[in-house]
Specification:
The chain is α/β, with parallel strands linked by helices and about 250 residues long. Helices cover about 45% and strands about 15% of the residues. The chain has a 6-stranded parallel β-sheet, with helices on both faces. Strand 3, helix 4 and strand 4 form a beta-alpha-beta unit.
Length: about 250
C-alpha cells in the first residue's frame, strides 16, 4: 500500500511522538519469548525514523522506556537495555546517513553505565545533524518531569532568581526535559490501547491523538502515512471557532 501521495507537505506535523506499544503481545501471538518482540520492534523503529525524515518531519520522539518499566521482570529489563545498546551501535550509520540528530529525555542517570555511555556517544557524534531531531524517551515519566520542573522553579523563586509573578507557560517549558523541542502536534499509540501512559502530558496539550490496533513490530511506513493523513483531515482550532480559523 502506498499512501505517500495524499500527504500534504505543506501541512505536516512538526513534532510527532509515538508510544511504541505491543512488542510483548506480538511475541506472544507468534509463540516467541517477549525478548524477540523487543528485538523485532527495533526494525520498525528504523523504518519509521527513515520514513519520518523522508516525509519531512522535523522532530520525532519515541517512548522507548518509562520510569514504570523498571518494575518489569529483571530479565526483561536487562533485555531491553541490551537491545537499546545494540540498536544505538547499529543505527549510528543510519542517523549519519540521513542527517538525523539524536537526543534523549528522562532520568538518564538511572540507565546502566554501558547503555548511558553508548547513548551519549551517539548523541555527541550526531549533534551537528540538521535534517530531523530524533528524541528517545528513556527512563521517562511525565509526572516526574513536572515534579522536577516545579522543584527547580521553586528553588529559583526562593533564591530570588525569578519572581513568582514571572511564572508562565514559557518558564515551565524552559524547565522541562523537552525545552529544546516544540509542542507535540501528533501523538500516535500502537497496539489498540487508548492511554497516554504518563507520556509528555504537558507537551501534548493540543496534540492530535491517533490510536491504531497495529502492534509495534507490525507498524510500517504506510501506517505512519495513515496517521499523518488523519492528522491533516482534522481542524486544529486551539480554542478558537471554525470561523476564526478559516
Amino acid at each position: 500500500m502506498n499512501l505517500k501521495e495524499p500527504i500534504n507537505k505543506d501541512n505536516l506535523p512538526k513534532h510527532i511522538a509515538i508510544i511504541m506499544d505491543g512488542n510483548g503481545r506480538w511475541a506472544k501471538q507468534q509463540g516467541f519469548l517477549r525478548a524477540i518482540g523487543h528485538q523485532t520492534g527495533t526494525k520498525s523503529v528504523k523504518k519509521i525514523i527513515e520514513a519520518s525524515a523522508t516525509i519531512g518531519i522535523e522532530c520525532l520522539t519515541l517512548f522507548a522506556f518509562s520510569t514504570e518499566n523498571w518494575n518489569r521482570p529483571k530479565l526483561e529489563v536487562q533485555t531491553l537495555m541490551r537491545v537499546l545498546i545494540n540498536s544505538l551501535k547499529k543505527e549510528l550509520v543510519t542517523l549519519q546517513k540521513n542527517n538525523i540528530k539524536l537526543s534523549a529525555i528522562g532520568n538518564l542517570e538511572q540507565l546502566p553505565k554501558s547503555a548511558l555511555s553508548e547513548l551519549l556517544d551517539v548523541i555527541e557524534k550526531t549533534k551537528g545533524n540538521t535534517r530531523m531531531t530524533l528524541t528517545l524517551a528513556l527512563s521517562y515519566g511525565s509526572r516526574d518531569e513536572l515534579v522536577n520542573a516545579v522543584k527547580s522553579i521553586s528553588n529559583k523563586v526562593k533564591n530570588n532568581i525569578i519572581s513568582i509573578d514571572d511564572i508562565d507557560d514559557s518558564i515551565i517549558n524552559e524547565h522541562l526535559y523537552t525545552r529544546n523541542l516544540p509542542d507535540v502536534d501528533l501523538l500516535i499509540r500502537t497496539s489498540g490501547e487508548h492511554r497516554i501512559s504518563n507520556f509528555l502530558l504537558w507537551q501534548i496539550a493540543y496534540a492530535e491523538l491517533y490510536f491504531t490496533d497495529v502492534l509495534w513490530p507490525d507498524f510500517k511506513e504506510h501506517h505512519l502515512h495513515e496517521a499523518i493523513i488523519s492528522y491533516q483531515k482534522r481542524e486544529r482550532r486551539f480554542g478558537k471557532t471554525s470561523e476564526q480559523i478559516k
